[in-house]
Design brief:
alpha/beta, disordered N terminus, 2 domains, membrane, P-loop_NTPase, Iron complex transport system ATP-binding protein, ABC_transporter-like_CS, globular, Rossmann fold
């Protein structure tokens, strides 16, 4: 496959989202996010993380002061047009689709593209192999576990060779082995394809181990951004999650988070 090459930074400024009369994001500004970065999006439930990803993908009504990728202005584009640059993977895929894994990837890959099966099939085969799920190729989606479906969804997103990959809790249904497999794979592909990967995670130690940057959110606002080891602190964890935590160093010299308890309300 010949991946897209992102020629510039993603700029997203003054992002405002109202849903059902409720203000979710209020003129939120992201720092410039460049190609080749894996960026973690952190925050408690209800802080606006999923809404932020959907707004960037054009899947919820949003207003922007600016939304661009390099020289491309994405703000006027509908979700179908933005999908040529940005791919969003939700927390879970629909569970009632009776297609094989291969069929589902072929359908997703050919949607909106003039691509015949002869050209699409090698792309699908490569995407499945990269994720280590070639053995699922002839299985039906509605027979898979939640974790297997999540891996198939990731294969669908990667097969489109996006410039920006938006992942909403992709590790949620995965066992420990597959969590690390996926994070290592995402790290490698982000570098090799010069992707920008923005990923919602709750495992802070995975963020510290695999991500180059972290964005910390609470109540629809950005609390901090920067290198994970710089912004994941006892103070920021107290502000985000209301927990009493420590950042220690393991025998390999890597930082890790220990939570000692909850802060008094």
């Amino acid at each position: 496959m010949t991946p897209h090459i992102a020629n510039g930074e993603l700029r997203a400024l003054e992002i405002t989202v109202r849903l059902n009369g409720r203000l979710i994001l209020d003129a939120l500004n992201l720092p410039p996010l460049g190609a080749g970065q894996m960026v973690a999006l952190l925050g408690p439930n209800g802080s606006g993380k999923s809404t932020l990803l959907k707004s960037l993908a054009g899947l919820v009504p949003a207003s922007f002061g600016a939304l661009s990728l390099g020289a491309s202005d994405l703000a006027p584009l509908r979700a179908s047009a933005r999908a040529g640059h940005i791919r969003y993977l939700p927390q879970s895929l629909p569970g009632d689709i009776h297609l094989t894994v291969t069929e589902s990837l072929l359908v997703a890959l050919r949607a909106g593209r003039a691509l015949n099966t002869q050209h699409a099939f090698p792309i699908v085969k490569t995407a499945l192999a990269e994720l280590g799920i070639s053995d699922l190729a002839n299985r039906y989606l509605d027979e898979l576990s939640g974790g297997q479906k999540q891996l198939v969804g990731l294969a669908q997103a990667l097969s489109h060779e996006p410039q920006v990959l938006l992942l909403d809790e992709p590790l949620a249904s995965l066992d420990l082995n597959h969590q690390h497999h996926v994070m290592q794979l995402l790290g490698r592909l982000t570098q090799e394809r010069r992707l920008l990967t923005l990923i919602v995670l709750h495992d802070l130690n995975s963020v510290l181990q695999y991500c180059g940057q972290a964005l910390l959110m609470r109540d629809g606002a950005l609390l901090a951004s920067g290198a994970p080891a710089k912004v994941i602190t006892a103070e920021s964890l107290a502000a985000m999650f209301g927990v009493r935590a420590r950042i220690e160093t393991c025998s390999l010299g890597r930082p890790y988070v220990l939570v000692d308890g909850l802060l008094p309300i």
